[in-house]
Structure formats: structure tokens, C-alpha cells
Design goal:
Elements: E1 8-11, H1 13-30, E2 36-42, H2 45-60, E3 64-71, E4 83-85, E5 95-103, H3 107-113, E6 123-131, E7 143-147, E8 156-159, E9 167-170
Parallel strand pairs: 2-3, 2-5, 5-6, 6-7
Antiparallel strand pairs: 1-9, 3-4, 8-9
Length: 171
């Protein structure tokens, strides 16, 4: 539940679902020749976004789609350990799309690249629902649902695991 006084709804449930579906189509089109794709969501709302993208991809494509979960502490200053809930062989010689809800400074996604650097991937791409363009790390998203220019004091909250509050909020 959002218990913040001044909350602005940026994307309602229908708009959010449309953005996610468009992202799925973009992923499908950019990877048309691939027979298999791995969608790896970062724990929390990033993983819920990955699940939604996988569901849409399965509706529009006959590709073999794998879903993986990446576990890390988004609040930690450094990431000593990043866990992947999927067999490493699942990723080998495949296109992997890392998924997170919001791209703010790029720190979380930059840390997430580390475990994939020792796996022989075909390609590594990034998908985010909201891109805020405040990058401190050299990370860019290949697939973006919504670009948003905000102040540094603004916060963006994506909620994909609660039907009553499903959407994107600014506070």
C-alpha cells in the first residue's frame, strides 16, 4: 500500500499492461531469429515485470522462453553475492534479457551483469518499464516501456504484484 501523501499515478493498470505488451513485441521483433530466449528478472518488481513479459511473449511467439530470477540487495552499496535461480546451462549461447522495473542510476543493473560475464552468452540485453535517465553507471536499456524526466527528489514506484494498486506511481 502506498502511504505517501502526494502520489501521482503515471500509468494506470491498462496503460501499464499496454507498455509491457509493447515491450514484449519489441523483444520478439529484435530477436526474431532466435529460437530460445532467457528473460532474467531482478527480484521484486523486476521479476514480476519479467513474468509479465514472458506471459506476453508466449502469447505472441512460439519461441522457447526461459524465466530466471536474479536475487540481490538493491539497497546495498556493493553486491558481494548475486544469486541466479536457474541452471547456468540455461544461459549458455542464448540471448539473455535482464529485466528490472526502474532504471535510475544504473547501479543495480551494472552489478547484475557480473555473474553473466563468466557465461558464454550470445547476447545480453536490458529491459525496464521506466527509464529515468539519471545514469551514474554505463548502462542503457534496449527496451523501455516509459521514459520519464524527473527531479532527483522524485521517486518512482512500480507495483505489479497487487491488483488494486497495479501501475506506476510518482511521489
Amino acid at each position: 500500500m502506498l502511504d505517501i501523501k502526494e502520489v501521482q499515478l503515471l500509468l494506470n493498470p491498462e496503460q501499464t499492461k499496454q507498455k509491457i505488451r509493447r515491450m514484449a513485441f519489441q523483444i520478439f521483433e529484435a530477436n526474431f531469429k532466435e529460437k530460445k530466449l532467457v528473460i532474467a528478472g531482478i527480484n521484486g518488481q523486476g521479476y514480476h515485470l519479467a513474468e509479465a513479459i514472458v506471459n506476453d511473449l508466449k502469447e505472441i511467439s512460439d519461441k522457447e522462453i526461459f524465466l530466471a530470477k536474479i536475487i540481490l540487495d538493491k539497497q546495498a552499496e556493493s553486491q558481494p553475492e548475486i544469486q541466479i535461480e536457474c541452471e547456468i546451462d540455461t544461459f549458455k549461447k542464448k540471448t539473455v534479457i535482464l529485466v528490472d522495473d526502474v532504471l535510475n542510476t544504473g547501479r543495480t543493473l551494472a552489478y547484475t551483469f557480473r555473474p553473466f560475464m563468466s557465461i558464454p552468452l550470445k547476447r545480453l540485453q536490458v529491459a525496464v518499464l521506466v527509464d529515468r535517465d539519471y545514469l551514474n553507471f554505463p548502462v542503457r536499456a534496449d527496451y523501455v516501456g516509459y521514459n520519464l524526466a524527473t527531479t532527483l527528489n522524485d521517486h518512482v514506484k512500480v507495483i505489479l504484484d497487487n491488483k488494486k494498486e497495479y501501475g506506476v506511481y510518482l511521489y
